[in-house]
Fold this sequence. Notes:
The protein is mainly alpha-helical. The protein is about 55% helix and about 0% strand.
Amino acid sequence: MNPETDYWELKKPSTGPQHRFGFMVMTFFAFFPRLFFAVTERELQHWLKHYATPQERALFASYG
């Protein structure tokens, strides 16, 4: 990571949590918190199961 990198030059990590919907759809979902959190929780659980490192799983578990 380089804090001097311009925003438009940043690269998205392929192993990070990804929403299957685009930015605009997720913005719309944010107006409906139950829907937003249901979608987000589902995607987060998938990421935890398939991509998270043991350290990331431990960190997630520490939040309860």
